[in-house]
Amino acid sequence: MPRTRALRGLRQPANAADYAPHAISELTVARKWGTIREITYLPAYRAATRSSHAGDPTGSVSPPMPTFDYQTAFHIAPVGLVISRQRIIEDCNRQLGKIFGYAHETLIGQSFQVLYPSPKEFERIGERIPPIMSTQGVYSDERIMRRANGELFWCHVTGRSLDVKDPHAAGLWTFEDISATRRVAVALTAREREIAAQLVQGKTSKQIGKILEISPRTVDIYRARLMQKYGAGTATELVQRLLGN
């Protein structure tokens, strides 16, 4: 059995009469091996209702507050949400399925690789995540992803691991489709997509080379190819076109 520690000191409601005696319970955090395994918070509202206005002669009452649990919030969130384990989708919400063009149930149990344009990009980004997340606690980038129909699109991705010492072990990820303001206008290679993703974040050739583990000169060569494909005369113009401006 995991060792359980209760966290007390929760703020009480301004009008305690609006709640049943057990409305505000303790927040119980069960820990095992130093990691949070379960969080239980059980609010319960008083079944009886009262007059919506003091002294209201009509005796009208306010409707009971609807139940709103964390699972419901997860599934109706306006951004794609994923709970992952070793880069496998343990659970995801409807919005993730909508963004990528899948029934969200079919993604459960799948590798994140199905959302990437190529296996190489899946592997490379997977290698970049641990050192950043282990030092910063969170990983975030904007990258080109692939929908079920093969369409490529820009996506903002953010993730947080439950254990920074093993970032891929288990985590929570958000996916936001930003294709409405930024579109993939031309066909790009896997490496060009990676460099484009770094360029739009304002990184220099030296910084990009360090992140992708290639030389700054190689970055410059790919930047020149991107400029040619996008018909950009300068590096600044290229970034603007990548951003959809």
Automatic annotation (TrEMBL):
GO terms for biological process: regulation of DNA-templated transcription. InterPro entries: PAS, PAS-like_dom_sf, Sig_transdc_resp-reg_C-effctor, Tscrpt_reg_LuxR_C, WH-like_DNA-bd_sf. One of its GO terms (molecular function) is DNA binding. Gene3D superfamilies: PAS domain, Winged helix-like DNA-binding domain superfamily/Winged helix DNA-binding domain. It holds the Pfam family PAS_9. The keyword Glycosyltransferase does not apply. Keywords: DNA-binding, Transcription, Transcription regulation. It comes from the Bacteria. Residues 181-245 form the HTH luxR-type domain. PANTHER family: DNA-BINDING TRANSCRIPTIONAL ACTIVATOR DEVR_DOSR (PTHR44688). This is LuxR family transcriptional regulator. It comes from Pandoraea commovens.
